[in-house]
Structure prediction request, 293 residues.
Amino acid sequence: MKKMLREITPLTQNDCFTLFSRVKTEFDFPLHYHEEFELNFIQNAKHAKRVIGDHIQEIDDLELVLVGSNLQHAWFTHKCKSSDITEITIQFHKNLLDESFLRRNQLSFIRAMFEKSQRGILFSRETTIQLAPRIKALGQKHGFDSVLELFSILHDLSISRNMQLLSDSTFNFQESYTYNNRRITKAIQYLNQNFDRPITLNEIAKLANMSDVSFSRYFKQSTGNTFIDSLNEIRLGHASRMLIDTTDSIAEIAYNCGFNNISNFNRIFRKKKSCTPKEFRESYNTYGSRVFI
Prediction:
C-alpha cells in the first residue's frame, strides 16, 4: 500500500485555530492529510485541479471547501494561468467542540456538517460569495472575538444550501458518519461489511423487519439516496481506494467490490466520476506520484 504524506500543522494545543492568507502564482503543496479540520477559501484559480479523497475536479474562479480529519487533499496548478491566486486556509482541532457539546440540539447542524466533511464539502458559489468578506477579515480579529467569529462562520456554513459532498462515502476509512436512525445505521453497516458480494433489497428489508416496498421508501426518505445508489457508492469508494493503493487489474477490483461484470463497473464509475477507472488511476497517480513515500 502507498503511504500518504502526513502534514504536521503549526496549530498548537494552546490555540483554537490557525489561519494562513497568501497570494501566489501556483499551488506547490503536495497531496497530504492531517488530523485538523481545514476550511479552504480559494479565489482567482480557475482551471486549477482539486483532489479530495477519491474526488478529482477542475475548479472555477471561486471556491470554499471544508476538509475533514485525516482526509487526503491538495490543489494543483494544472491549467491555471493566474498570477494572483488568493488562498485563505483555516485549520482547527477536530475536538475544538467537544463531542458531548456537539450533541446539544443547537449544535445539530454543525455536528452534521463535521460528519459530512469526512467526504469533503464544496459549498455553493452563493454561500462562498456571502461569507468571503468575513473569512478575509477573520485574520484581523483577535482572542475571543476571533473564536466567536469562526463559530459563527461555521454555523452559517452548516445551515447553507446546496452543499456538495466530494469523495465517496467509504474512501476515507476514518469516516464516522452515522444516521440518527437505528434501522438505517444497521443497514449501512451491513452494506459496508458485505459490499463484495451480491446483496438484494429483500435481504436488507428483512434485516429491518420491513417489506421491500416500505423499506425502499423509508431508506430513500432517511438517506436521500436509493438502496442501489447507496450500495454502488459504497462499492465505488472501496474500488477507488484499490485503484490508488494496489496494482490489481481493473477487472479484479470490479469483482472484488461486488460488481457482477466489468462493463457494469465501467458504466457506473464513469457516470459518478466522469472518467473511466483506468483514467482515474492514471490521473490520480499523476498528482500523487510526487508525495507517495
Observations:
- The chain has two domains: 16-165, 182-288.
